[in-house]
Amino acid sequence: MSAVVPEVEVPASEDVLAVTEDVWMALLGDDAPLLPRTVAPGAPFDVAAWSAATTISGGWQGVVTVELDEALARRLTMRMLALPADEQASDSDVADAVGELVNMVGGNVKSLMPGPSVLSLPAVAAGRAAFSSDSALACRVDLVWQDAPVRVSVHVPQEGPR
Amino acid sequence: MKILIADDSRVMRQIVIRTLRQAGHGGHDIVEAENGRQALEMVQTEAPDLVLSDWNMPEMNGIDCLSALRASGSQVAFGFVTSEGSEEMRERAASAGAAFLIAKPFTPEAFDDALRSVI
């Protein structure tokens, strides 16, 4: 975990971790633990990935992003759809599943922060996440599940001159 | 009993159906809508006994769907299944006429408790 904290209210890394663990356990069960992963501050997500983001606006402003390893995104989708092992998840199913994942994490982060706010529909991409240059990293949680990396990050509007 | 599940995510609709089964409510007829507008139409055409709706959806969100239903005179039982479980959202849901709000991530027990309040 690491955080670069600007001068606005931001969620605690511990809270984002707890939210992520709750969502993860609900979706994937507890047969394998979600473990911390040590990543250098500022390091980009280092694997081919799916990414999804949702924006919170109103009483609190922020963007919650989830990035996932490709194989993990497909396993997550198969588990969420309860597909048999000999079937493949389509790209649209993966986009749907990853979008729902960030919706759950983002909705719970929104509940932790001052309101009233509005949660956007998720935006999903096959690839790494892109972050606006006028936002600052507030919180980042790097995790690993069955050797596959997962990253949850929260960005907030950057204050002051850039 | 007929249950209308409204969610723009096919994955989440599947999870809700599976969770209903795990909660001991697998014997109900299920119909599905992809957004609030479709749900609004299907309440007329399908006459469900209960609507389980996401909050954030394209075309029409869940709270606008519920408001439109009540404005049209429909008193169909309506519950939210949403990632937004704050007190503020629960109050908005209740004020609009929702019977309950199940926050994601959820458990079969949460579904059972909620459904027992309307069955």
From TrEMBL, chain A:
InterPro entries: CheX-like_dom (IPR028051). It holds the Pfam family CheX. It comes from the Bacteria. Residues 51-129 form the Chemotaxis phosphatase CheX-like domain. This is Chemotaxis phosphatase CheX-like domain-containing protein. It comes from Nocardioides daeguensis.
Automatic annotation (TrEMBL), chain B:
The modification 4-aspartylphosphate is found at D54. Residues 2-119 form the Response regulatory domain. It comes from the Bacteria. Keywords: Phosphoprotein. InterPro entries: Sig_transdc_resp-reg_receiver, ST_Response_Regulator. PROSITE patterns: RESPONSE_REGULATORY. Signal peptide: none annotated. Transmembrane segments: none annotated. This is Response regulator.
